[in-house]
Design brief:
The chain is an alpha+beta fold and 97 residues long. 26% of the residues lie in helices and 35% in strands. The longest helix is centred in the first third of the chain and has 17 residues. It comes from Marinibacterium profundimaris.
């Protein structure tokens, strides 16, 4: 299994708009994605109001590639979030049981 950690920092002033996108579109989308075994969405906190994240566990690299494409190391960006986000990071790990 592959663990994918995706972190986002919004542009200043875009926190509320991104929070709406995150809760209304991104979380439901990820929860309904084939091959995704577990998803843990992380919403912004008062000390870091622009930061959001997903920790995802994919059943296989093939399942992750089916979602993100062959270049799975690049962030999969929904057009609705493109103008809201200032910075993205993405990391992959082999899940340890």
């Amino acid at each position: 299994m592959i663990m994918r950690i995706f972190q986002v920092q919004t542009h200043p002033g875009q926190e509320e708009a991104f929070a709406r996108f995150f809760h209304e579109i991104a979380i439901p989308l990820m929860r309904s994605t084939d091959g995704l075994v577990h998803v843990l969405p992380g919403a912004a906190r008062s000390e870091s109001p622009r930061d959001f994240s997903f920790v995802m566990v994919w059943e296989s690299l093939e399942a992750l590639k089916a979602f993100a494409g062959e270049d799975y190391t690049a962030a999969h960006i929904d057009p609705a979030e493109a103008d809201l986000v200032a910075h993205r990071t993405i990391h992959h790990y082999d899940l340890v049981r």
